[in-house]
Amino acid sequence: MGLSTHVLDTMHGCPAAGMGVSFYDTTGGEAVLLQRFNLNHDGRNPNGPLLDNNTLKVGTYRLVFDVKGYFAARNVPLPEPSFLNQVSLDFGVADTTQHYHVPLLASPWSYSTYRGS
Questions:
Q1: CATH fit for domain 3-113, picks 2.30.120.10, 2.40.50.140, 1.20.1250.20, 2.60.40.180
Q2: What phi, psi does 90 have (nearest 5°)?
Q3: How far apart are CA 102 and CA 81, in angstroms?
Q4: What confidence tens digit (pLDDT) does each residue in 19-51 have?
Q5: Please, where are the H alpha helices in 31-81?
Q6: What does DSSP assign to residue 67?
Q7: Fewer beta carbons within 10 Å, N or C terminal of the chain?
Q8: Which of 67, 55, 63 is nearest to 9 (CA)?
């Protein structure tokens, strides 16, 4: 299955539909943009996996989630500057035969992640 992501809005108890995400390859120390997208109604990439098992490589990657933009678009009152702006997750892929799922649980004040299934 390759590499996928999913974002849940813990403030409203729903998928983070419309949140902007940028995906980078950081292998070698330089961040190379691979794609930008907005999450679909289910809080997932509308095009499916970010990388399938054939294109996923051993290395390091970064997902950047526009948390501030998402909550501002939902008319959540945010201080200026907001507590969270963009949440950046750096992670490594060691075995390209496995599925790497990177979920994010987010509110305007906190976030958590883990390696999902």
A1: 2.60.40.180
A2: -100, 135
A3: 27
A4: 999 999 999 999 999 999 999 999 999 999 999
A5: 67-73
A6: H
A7: C
A8: 67
